[in-house]
Design goal:
The chain has 273 residues and is of the alpha/beta class. It has 6 helices and 17 strands. The strands form 4 sheets. Strands 1-8-9-11-13-15-14 form a 7-stranded mixed beta sheet, with helices on one face. A 6-stranded mixed beta sheet has the order 7-6-5-2-16-17, with no helix packed on it. The radius of gyration is 17 Å and the shape is globular. 43% of the residues are buried.
């Protein structure tokens, strides 16, 4: 399905990325000692209080931790204060039948392609491999990407998926990267319109250049993973979100925002999850 959306605020498109909420059905559900519902709500409240200007929300997977329909209902209810449309895709922890249980939704849209204004398109890919933490793009997904890019050669493109298609520099996380990523980069390389690839999964800030394409990952709304750690390690950075501005000339501006220092600290003695 393809959707069109125009910014009413300015000539550029402003987006908000929220990722890796890891919500549970119970309100007291915790991941590594962090109440994920409370941290998610705090992020949403901070965005509202800061009066952040944006046109749409991008939710890049691991919305649920326990696979339940109620966890997706919690997300649906939780983003209501943000008011703008939300486009989501699945992560390795998500259960797609439960995701679908909240659709159709007035605010949440599950789509493969969104046309943003006159100059941009967003392509949403499903990198989930059921039952394992790593990702991979099927031939169908690769064909979708190639087709969407070919369809609008005049539009700059932002490509979304859950898994990171480049190494993050942490051995334990890089076991769970996008496998067979060469096929993904082969498709991207056939088109000069892809300006950035946006993902979640690694619970940290990442901004790398791959042959002129920015690869960007974003902090989780709950637990943060320590960068450049070969073994499982948690970071003391606070939960956060990303703001993006897609400019008419194909350039992209972005900034990470976080809750105040010390907010929602995990159990640092944990050895995994």
């Amino acid at each position: 399905m393809k959707l069109s959306y125009s910014s009413k605020s300015s000539s550029s498109i402003k987006l908000l990325q929220i990722t890796d909420t890891h919500l549970f059905a119970p309100a007291d559900g915790r991941l590594l000692s962090i109440n994920t519902s409370e941290s998610f709500t705090s992020v949403v409240n901070a965005i509202v209080e800061e009066n952040v200007e944006f046109d749409a929300i991008l939710a890049t997977g691991d919305i649920s931790q326990d696979h339940t329909e109620a966890s997706y209902q919690r997300f649906e209810k939780g983003i209501l204060p943000l008011e703008k449309p939300c486009f989501w895709l699945p992560g390795n922890h998500d259960y797609k039948p439960s995701m679908g249980s909240v659709l159709p939704s007035p605010q949440i849209h599950q789509t493969e392609q969104v046309l943003l204004g006159d100059h941009w398109q967003v392509i949403l890919l499903d990198s989930q491999v059921v039952g394992v933490p790593h990702g991979e793009l099927s031939e169908e997904q690769l064909t979708l990407l190639d087709s969407a890019l070919s369809q609008y050669p005049e539009k700059s493109a932002l490509v979304l998926l859950h898994h990171h298609p480049v190494l993050a520099g942490s051995a334990w996380l890089d076991q769970h990267t996008l496998k067979k990523s060469e096929a993904f980069w082969d498709v991207v390389g056939r088109h000069n319109t892809v300006k950035a690839v946006l993902c979640g999964h690694i619970h940290q800030d990442l901004d790398k250049d791959v042959n002129g394409v920015r690869v960007i990952a974003t902090p989780s709304t709950c637990v943060q993973f320590k960068p450049n750690s070969d073994d499982f390690a948690l970071d003391n950075q606070s939960p956060g979100w990303r703001e993006l501005e897609l400019c008419d000339d194909g350039s992209l501006k972005t900034v990470i925002k976080r809750l105040p220092a010390g907010a929602y600290q995990p159990d640092f003695h944990s050895t995994g999850y």
